[in-house]
């Protein structure tokens, strides 16, 4: 989440990538997801190498994550804890015992020639996440959550060389597999937004899609029950943005329906999304489970998960987005839409609640965050972590607005300058002489002068034309460069005419 598009992608006003349409009248789209999430642990899943991002290639690896002969993996307990925590947040059943398995396949950046993952005894099963489908609240099943290691990274250079960076090899992942309960790009979009928000709240991952912390595979096909038609399931691999997920689903829906209507069918295969061509492209034939030749990882023993440990992890779960939304509506009297947007990002929700502690007018705080604050984050293409001013500076500005030091219009100008310069509202108001004019005598002099030079508008107002009053007020505000208190200006004009 480096930009406001990602803040509200947690949220979610991503208008340009908002899904279009839904189910075809004749065909039902069936979608299941496999979501890979990189965990926020300090070290890798089976060794003590650092998990820091964007380091020089191949400096954060050791004999274990390079798969050298004789190197033995040791399971990181924190990875299991984060897996359980995610399972609890997604209403899963936590296993009493679990084990790790070898998933065998060849790829240049998979140093051992196999991945240590989980096959038949994942740590979490049978969960669900409720979403708004547009028609009703719909329960999307979570089939399983398992832990595994990541592969390295393949880099294709401009001169055609293939380079390998093993810093990512052995990074801890959880894979969340949904049941095929999603039926449109809109539902998928809503699910991913809520899912991502929950992960951020429980702090198991930073979910930075641009850094590969969250990647999504989509399994999709279409069914026409009336005509007894069903396309083969196609997997779309490694989608790294919600926008790409939406576009890929919509493209595949049309492709599957077109092929079936022509008397053909899709090939059971793995495809990828080509952003430049705006279409999915075939990668390889889809592997079957038996192709991976799973067998139990001999170097790591089966492990038990004590109920007491599960209960202690459950106690660490924070207030989740849905509960926070309901509380914000109840406690701060926010409209449902405002509450939904604000709680969609944990950072934004914390920012709002910390502000309300200082500025008791929750509606004022909500209005400014929902309008100017989010607009400026988007305009400056930054996220909440990268604003130049402090939270205290924002509180100070709202207090100035609440106490009439500056009016709303000037407040907008001040906030924009705060984003540009990082200066406090107090500094900007003083530098630009923006303090609101509240002295009655000063405003009265200006009003008298405006009335004298706009007699036609005065007469129009006396004849019942309300627009004329707005014009006179506008002239006074123009004379004062927007600094006069609008309520006082309105009152004085009415008294004098």
Topology, element by element:
Layout: H1 4-7, E1 28-38, H2 77-89, E2 93-94, E3 97-98, E4 101-104, E5 114-117, E6 124-132, E7 137-149, E8 153-156, E9 162-165, E10 172-178, H3 185-202, E11 214-224, E12 229-230, E13 234-239, H4 242-261, E14 269-274, E15 279-285, E16 295-296, E17 303-304, H5 307-314, H6 321-332, H7 336-343, H8 346-358, H9 362-379, H10 391-402, H11 408-421, H12 425-431, H13 440-453, H14 455-462, H15 466-479, H16 486-496
Parallel strand pairs: 13-14
Antiparallel strand pairs: 1-10, 1-11, 2-6, 3-17, 4-5, 4-16, 6-7, 7-10, 8-9, 11-12, 11-13, 14-15
Helix pairs in contact: 3-4, 6-7, 8-10, 9-11, 10-11, 13-15, 13-16, 14-15, 15-16
Question: How many domains, as an integer?
Answer: 3
Annotation, overall tally of beta strands:
17
- Show unreliable segments: 1-23
The major sheet is characterized as: 10 strands, mixed
**Average pLDDT level:** 89
From the spread of the alpha carbons, the general shape counts as elongated
Straight-line distance between termini = 55 Å
Structural class: alpha+beta
Radius of gyration: 29 Å
The fraction of residues assigned to DSSP E strands is 15-25%
In helices, the fraction of residues equals 25-40%
Number of helices: 16
Please provide a written account of the structure:
The protein has 497 residues and is of the alpha+beta class. The chain folds into 3 domains: 28-313, no CATH class; 321-431, no CATH class; 440-496, Arc Repressor Mutant, subunit A (Orthogonal Bundle), CATH 1.10.10.410. The protein is 39% helix and 19% strand. It contains 16 helices and 17 strands. It has helices at residues 4-7, 77-89, 185-202, 242-261, 307-314, 321-332, 336-343, 346-358, 362-379, 391-402, 408-421, 425-431, 440-453, 455-462, 466-479, 486-496, and strands spanning 28-38, 93-94, 97-98, 101-104, 114-117, 124-132, 137-149, 153-156, 162-165, 172-178, 214-224, 229-230, 234-239, 269-274, 279-285, 295-296, 303-304. The strands form 4 sheets. Strands 1, 2, 6, 7, 10, 11, 12, 13, 14 and 15 form a 10-stranded mixed β-sheet that branches. The longest helix has 20 residues, at 242-261. It is elongated and about 90 Å long. The two termini are 55 Å apart. Mean pLDDT is 89; it is low at 1-23. Residues 350-497 form the Asn/Gln amidotransferase domain. Heterotrimer of A, B and C subunits.
């Amino acid at each position: 989440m480096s930009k406001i598009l990602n803040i509200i992608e947690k949220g979610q006003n991503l208008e340009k990538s908002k899904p279009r349409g839904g189910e075809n009248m004749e065909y039902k789209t069936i979608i299941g997801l496999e979501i890979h999430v990189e965990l926020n642990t300090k070290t890798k899943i089976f060794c003590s190498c650092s998990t820091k991002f964007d380091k020089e290639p191949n400096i954060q690896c050791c004999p274990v994550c390079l798969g050298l002969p004789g190197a033995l993996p040791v399971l990181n307990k924190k990875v299991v804890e984060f897996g359980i925590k995610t399972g609890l947040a997604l209403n899963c059943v936590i296993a009493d015992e679990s084990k790790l398995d070898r998933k065998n396949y060849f790829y240049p950046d998979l140093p051992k020639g196999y991945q240590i993952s989980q096959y038949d005894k994942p740590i979490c099963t049978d969960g669900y996440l409720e979403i708004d489908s547009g028609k009703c609240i719909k329960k999307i099943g979570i089939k399983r959550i398992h832990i595994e290691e990541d592969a390295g990274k393949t880099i294709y250079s401009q001169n055609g060389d293939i380079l390998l960076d093993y810093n990512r090899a052995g990074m801890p992942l959880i894979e969340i597999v949904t049941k095929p309960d999603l039926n449109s790009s809109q539902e998928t979009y809503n699910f991913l937004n809520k899912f991502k928000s929950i992960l951020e709240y429980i702090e198991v991952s930073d979910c930075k899609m641009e850094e590969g912390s969250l990647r999504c595979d989509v399994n999709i096909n279409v069914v026409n029950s009336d005509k007894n038609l069903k396309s083969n399931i196609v997997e779309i691999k490694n989608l790294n943005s919600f926008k790409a997920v939406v576009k890929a689903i919509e493209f595949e829906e049309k492709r599957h329906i077109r092929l079936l209507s022509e008397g053909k069918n899709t090939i059971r295969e793995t495809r990828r999304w080509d952003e430049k061509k705006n279409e999915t492209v075939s990668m390889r034939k889809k592997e079957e489970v038996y192709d991976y030749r799973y067998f139990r990882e001999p170097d790591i023993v089966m492990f038990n998960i004590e109920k007491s440990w599960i209960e202690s992890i459950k106690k660490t779960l924070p207030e989740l987005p849905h509960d926070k939304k309901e509380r914000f509506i109840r406690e701060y009297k926010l409209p449902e839409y405002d509450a939904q947007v604000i709680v969609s990002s944990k950072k934004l929700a914390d920012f709002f609640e910390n502000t309300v502690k200082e500025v008791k007018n929750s509606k004022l705080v909500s209005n400014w965050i929902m309008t100017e604050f989010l607009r400026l984050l988007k305009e400056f293409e930054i996220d909440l972590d990268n604003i130049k001013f402090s939270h205290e500076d924002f509180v100070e500005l709202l207090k100035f607005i609440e106490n009439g030091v500056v009016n709303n219009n000037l407040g907008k100008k001040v906030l924009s300058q705060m984003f540009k310069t990082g200066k406090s509202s107090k500094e900007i108001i003083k530098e630009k002489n923006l303090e609101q004019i509240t002295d009655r005598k000063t405003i009265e002099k200006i009003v008298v002068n405006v009335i004298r030079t706009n007699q036609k508008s005065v007469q129009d107002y006396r004849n019942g034309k309300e627009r004329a009053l707005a014009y006179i007020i506008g002239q006074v505000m123009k004379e004062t460069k927007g600094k006069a208190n609008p309520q006082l200006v309105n009152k004085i004009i009415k008294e004098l005419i």
